[in-house]
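not sure who needs this but someone in the group chat was asking about Dragline silk spidroin 1 from Octonoba varians so here u go. i didnt clean anything up, its just raw.
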Amino acid sequence: VGSAAASAAASRLSSPEASSRVSSAVSNLVSSGPTNSAALSNTISNLVSQIGSSNPGLSGCDVLVQALLELVSALIQILGSSSIGQVNYGSAGQATQIV
């Protein structure tokens, strides 16, 4: 992905539509629980579908980049609102399996 495409995707994050999609993604991920791998997959699929339908001029790659940026935004929102206790560093393998 070129820097121009990445810059354009980042600028689209400030749109009301992106904010709405990120809010929905946060809601879906939080309500599904931390170990529901299907929730992550469904969230990505929903983002790709919504972004593609509302931005017909974007390439498939641009849609995917936008969806992943919005997913990262949702995850940052969740982490920023969380109270994190002791971190189990040994469970990294389990986390990668969920993803």
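also Residues 1-98 form a domain with the Arc Repressor Mutant, subunit A fold (CATH 1.10.10.1350). if thats useful
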